[in-house]
């Protein structure tokens, strides 16, 4: 968001809250998981969802499963079908990490979202008021036994995120187990479908450089690079959209389409996705709408 965007956003938020009637004393709109539990109407009953996920975890012999709130392109803004943290926990905030074990379910998120989480999660979930990976690994080391395996979906972890977990878990003899089939997707029976293809070309009148020029520039950088890479892989959605002057509508309020690009000195591979993870790459020409 630009600075102007933030100022406008802040003005809207402050304006909205100052015009609201102050809430009654107490916090009756947040859940209360005491002996006589109270759940606000906004809380989601996750009992059956958690049971299904745990049933999927059991044959894999994992002691915990990590569910980050991102998609397979590590997007910050995601489509509903990628909102796995929201589906499993009820919490719809844009940042948070869920961990599910055979008998516990926890959500780590930052202070922007604590009240929201208390209104959306039921008492199956524990809120941890700390968004750090260190906080998550400390909890795992305390609650998961030595030698145990912790499952994760490799499409939802950057290499840096993996390293941040592993640098603390590995010395403590807890192993991260890569599970390419996402376990939430497996049990999410009414998961929203992929949107229909929405890809379109930017009009020539607003394009500063053609995709051929941009590809040429990147190939020059490949040739000049001392590491002599054979290819460049683009996985972030804005990268492919920018490079080919294309836009789409796969994610609400974001002009992108699901895709990966593999660029070599003489080939362009597109994995352009009406798909969950990988499909057969389509020929590049099919990406160029008339
Ligand atoms: C939760 O409910 C219990 C029992 O009804 C009450 O004593 C306690 O104050 C409540 N907690 C909050 C934070 O409202
Ligand atoms: C949540 O759903 C389960 C399974 O349908 C049900 O047994 C339980 O009573 C529900 N919990 C609440 C708090 O409504
Ligand atoms: C399951 O995991 C435990 C560690 O949590 C390990 O001791 C055991 O050998 C594993 N069993 C199988 C069948 O892999
Ligand atoms: C991890 O396992 C190794 C080999 O079994 C052992 O020597 C080491 O002390 C363990 N590390 C911790 C932190 O328990």
TrEMBL record:
One of its GO terms (molecular function) is metal ion binding. Keywords: Hydrolase, Metal-binding, Signal. Residues 49-177 form the Creatinase N-terminal domain. This is Creatinase N-terminal domain-containing protein. Belongs to the peptidase M24B family. It comes from Anguilla anguilla. Residues 1-18 form the signal peptide. Gene3D superfamilies: Creatinase/prolidase N-terminal domain. The lineage of its organism: Eukaryota, Metazoa, Chordata, Craniata, Vertebrata. InterPro entries: Creatin/AminoP/Spt16_N, Creatinase_N, X-Pro_aminopeptidase_P. It comes from the Eukaryota.
């Amino acid at each position: 968001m630009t600075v102007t965007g933030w100022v406008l956003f802040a003005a809207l938020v402050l304006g909205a809250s100052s015009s609201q009637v102050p809430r009654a004393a107490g916090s009756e709109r947040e859940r209360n998981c005491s002996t006589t539990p109270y759940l606000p109407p906004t809380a989601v009953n996750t009992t059956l969802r958690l049971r299904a996920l745990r049933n999927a975890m059991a044959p894999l012999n994992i002691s915990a499963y990590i569910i980050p709130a991102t998609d397979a392109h590590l997007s910050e803004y995601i489509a509903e079908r990628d909102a796995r943290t929201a589906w499993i926990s009820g919490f719809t905030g844009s940042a948070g990490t869920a961990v599910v074990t055979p008998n516990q379910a926890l959500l780590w998120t930052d202070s922007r979202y604590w009240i929201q989480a208390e209104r959306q999660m039921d008492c199956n979930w524990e809120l941890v008021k700390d968004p750090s990976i260190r906080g998550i690994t400390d909890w795992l080391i305390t609650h998961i036994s030595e030698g145990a395996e912790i499952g994760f979906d490799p499409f939802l972890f950057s290499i840096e995120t993996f390293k941040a977990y592993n640098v603390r878990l590995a010395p403590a003899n807890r192993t991260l187990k890569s599970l390419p089939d996402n376990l939430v997707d497996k049990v999410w029976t009414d998961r929203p479908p992929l949107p229909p293809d929405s890809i379109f070309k930017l009009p020539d009148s607003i394009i500063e450089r053609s995709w051929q020029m941009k590809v040429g520039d990147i190939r020059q950088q490949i040739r000049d690079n001392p590491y002599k890479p054979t290819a460049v892989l683009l996985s972030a959605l804005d990268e492919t959209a920018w490079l080919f002057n294309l836009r789409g509508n796969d994610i609400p309020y974001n002009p992108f389409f699901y895709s990966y690009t593999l660029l070599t000195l003489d080939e362009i591979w597109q994995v352009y996705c009406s798909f969950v993870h990988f499909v057969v790459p389509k020929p590049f020409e099919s990406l160029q709408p008339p």
